[in-house]
Amino acid sequence: MSMTSIKDPQNEEKEQSFAETAMRMSGKSEEEATRTGAVDRADDQVESMFAAEYKTVNSPVHKAVWDQRVPIELFTPPKMSANDVSFPAMQKSLEVLRKYRDAGTVYNEKGKVSDAVIKDLSDAGYWGMAIEKEYGGQGISVIQFMRFIAEVAKVDPTVAGLASVHGCIGAVDPVKTFGNESQKKKFLPLLASGKSLSAFALTEPCAGSDLTALRTTAVLKGDHYIVNGEKLFITNAVPGRTIGLVCLIDGKPAALIAELPPTENEHFKIVNYGLHALKHAYNNGLIFKDFAVPKENLLVPGVGDGLTIGYHGLNLGRLALCANAAGTMKLMLANMLPWAKFRETYGHAIDTRELVKRRIARAAALIAGSEALYQWGSWLLDKGYRGELECVIAKIFGSEALKEVAIELFMKTHGGRSFLHGHMFGDNVHEFLAPCIYEGEGEMLGMAFFKSLAKAHGQKYFEPIGHALQKHKIKDFNPANPAHAWALKSELMNYGGWRIGKMFESPDHHEIAGMNLKLQGHIDYALEMLNQAPIELSENMVKHQLKLPDRQCRIAHMSRRVQDMVIILITALWAHQQQDEVQTAAADILCQDLRRGLTGEQPSDKYFRDCSRLADLIIAGGYKELENIKKLDIMFSYDKKAKEAKTAVKA
Fold first, then answer.
1. Which of 23, 65, 280, 323 is most buried per CB count within 10 Å?
2. What is the reported pLDDT for 303?
C-alpha cells in the first residue's frame, strides 16, 4: 500500500514505489508491476499539488478512520440556501432550458441536444460557470456549480451532464489548472462563451480503467505535434470542438489541447457506433492520422505528466455525477407521486399501499444521501482539500442510488407503461444505469478507495516489514516462525504497539446541540463503527500480506463498509442542518437501511411504519423541493376528467 520510493537492487538509478516492488515479490509480471507503479506515481503527483493539511492523509475520512478523534467540523459544511443558485446567469440558463422543455424542443431531429439550446445557453452564460470572470466566465465556487447542476437535472439531466463534461472533465479544468497564462487567454474565453464546447479524450480501445495502456502518440515536428492514434467513448467530441487529448510523447503520457477541425478530413475521422447510453449527447470515437497540434498547446504540469492532468479533474466529475443523480431522482420522485395517486387497485389509490409508500420513502432517503454527499465534497474542494476519498464515496453512492430509484422504485411503480415510447424511464433507462461506469466503475473505485485509505498506514507499519523481508530474503513470511519473528522483531514491535493501543481506544463522541434523537443515535453508531474500522482493515492487511491486491472481493467489501459508515455520519449531520421534517425522516430511513447492511439485521415493523409516515408527509406536499418540478405527460393523462371518464365507461 505504500508509495514511498525505494531503490531497485538491479539498478541504483531507477526508483520505484514499494507497491511496485511488492507486486514483483508476489509473483506479478514485470508489465503489471510497471503499469501499477505508473498509476501510483500519477496519483502521488496529483497528491503533491496540495498543501500538507489538505492531502488525503489529513482528509476528513482518513482522520475519521485512523485518528482517535473524528473531526466532526469537517463533516459539517454550511447549509446551502436558495441564494446559492440565484445568480443571473443561473436563473437565465434555467429559464432558457425550461422554455425549450415546455415546447418539447430540447432535442433535434436526431434526438440530440439541439444547437439552438446550446447557443441560447451560451448567451445565458451556462458554459462559463466554472471559469473565472477574468476569462469571461461566471467564476462560481465548486459547491455553487454542483448545486446548479442538481437544479438543471430537475429540468433535463442530459443538459446538466454536458455542463459537467465541459466544465469538470473536458478541457476547462486542464487549462484552468495546468495551462500557462497564454493558454488560458487563448482557450478559456472561447470555452466560457460556448462557441466551442469541450471534451477530454483519454479512453482508448485498449485503455479504459488501465490508463497505462495508451497507444496514441504525438511526435514533435517543427512547430507542431503530429498525432496518430484512436480514442473511444469520448462524450461531447464532434467536429469543431476543443478537446484535452492525452497521448504519448517520447514514451510518456502528455496532454495537448486540440481544436478539432469543423469537418472530417484525411487527418481526423469520427467513429460512429451504436451506444444505448448518452443518447441525447454525442459520444464518438476519434481517429487521428498525422493530425497536427501546435506545440504551444502542450500542457506542462508543475509535477507529473498527462496522467496527472487526467486524474486531476476526476473528483470534480464524480461530484457532478452525484449532483446530477440527486436532481434526476427528484424528477423521478416528483413523477411517481401523481401516478401513485391516480392509479387504483381494488378501489384504492396505490399511494395508500404500504409497498408503494416504502418506495416513496426509499427514494427520498437516497436523494437525501446524495445531496449530503455532493454538498459536503464540494465544500471540501472549495476549502482546498484534494477530496479523493470523499468524492469517490459521492460518486459510488450517487450512481448506485440513481440506478435503484430508476429500476426498483420508479419503473416498478409505473409498471408496464414504463416501457412506452415517450415515458421517461423507457426512453432513458440506459442514462440511469451508465453512471455506475462513468468516472470509474463503482467496485473498481471502491478498491481504489481502500488503497488510498490504507496507504499511509501501510507506509508506516508494513513498508518497513517489506524492506526487512527483502533484506532477509524471506518470501513466505510467517510470524509464528521464530526465525522470521526474530529477523523482523523491531518492525513487528512497532506494529504491535499500534495494534495494542487501538484495542484500548474508545469511540469518539459528539453531542450536537438540538440534534434529533434518532439522528444522534445514527451519529453515535457511525462513530463507534469508525473506531473499529482500523482494526478490521489492518488485520486483513496482516492476513493477506502481499496477496491482498488479489483479494479484490475482500477489499471491495471492506471499502463498502467504511463508505457506509461515512454516509451515515454525513447524512445525519446534513439532515440536522436542514431543520426540515421530511429531510430528517428521509435521513433516518437511509441510516437505518445502511445500518442493517452493516449488521445483517432484518427490518422491523417500526421501520416499515417509519417509511409509511415519511411517504405520507411527501404525498401531502411536505417535500417542498418537488413543488416546482414539471410533471411529465406519460402517454395517458391522469387527471380528474380522465378518472371520471374511466368511471363512466365502467358504468
1. 323
2. 75
